[in-house]
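The instructor's notes for this session suggest beginning with a concrete chain rather than abstract definitions. Hand out the sequence below and ask the class to guess, before any prediction is shown, which regions might be ordered.
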Amino acid sequence: MTDSNAEPLDEFGLIARYFDRPAGDASVVLGPGDDAALIEPTQTLAMSTDTLNAGVHFLDDIDPARLGERALAVNLSDMAAMGAQPRWFLLSLTLARTQASWLEGFAAGLHACAQRYGVSLIGGDVTGGALAMSIHILGEVPRTQALLRSGAACGDAVFVTGTLGDAAAGLRLAGEKRDDDADKRWLIDRYELPTPRVAAGIALRGIATAAIDVSDGLLADLGWICKASGCAADVDVAAVPLSAPLSRRESLGQARRFALSGGDDYELCFTAPGQAEERVRGALAQVGVAVTRIGECRAGHGVHCRLDGRPYAAGSGGFAHFS
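After discussion, reveal the predicted structure:
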């Protein structure tokens, strides 16, 4: 279905109208419009791909400008978790219909986010089908400074940036049509417009021993660090940071469940030697990102939660795509 009063566009006309912008980046030799983009990287490349499907990764009625920003932001978060500087991305967009107002909004949000983080859209594809988008993002990082999941060691401290659980609460609240107060709007914003911690990831080069972004939930994502690093992690539930809006909207127990097992916060969870805590705090203070120490690594397997010195049953371990 197309706009009845709009000039029909083929795939290439659609790309040219909504997504072909001057790169403003000398490393982009050739951008959208040819069979492949050409770039000239100067460091080790970091590459990642994420797909967002309607009804799974975003609500069907989300504002298209917010969706455009969100689609790129979640990919930028992968670069942040690697300590990489994002540089370029490709967009594959599947559309059920070509609606000009939707495309204008989506493209505006996408390009605004790209400009904010200094990344260039260099190509991609548009096709028909159920609404979905895949972004392939590329960044640069010095060869020996990439943050991996596999570097945590026994005795390392576990940290998180920002606050957790906000996006999970925001997702639930986004489906409600009543009680539209400031806290609700703030939590929905945290879900729909995540803040990728790119500057924090770069600041943690040479300090953090392992890192991951919190996309599927703290327990699930910290579990990946433990698995890759061959260690266990103890989490002090009382130390996990909760925002004021989340604490006002939810009971303490529910807020903690969101913080431990809810996804889509896109904060960083990382490890560093305990004696490096002041370096961690100093580095992140310089880029204006709050950080909290929530636990430590030890010998063993998996993630273990404790509250007031006792084991704490955290419930679900986080989002799983094929559960």
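Then share the key points. Residues 11-141 form a domain with the 60s Ribosomal Protein L30; Chain: A; fold (CATH 3.30.1330.10). The first helix runs from residue 11 to 18.
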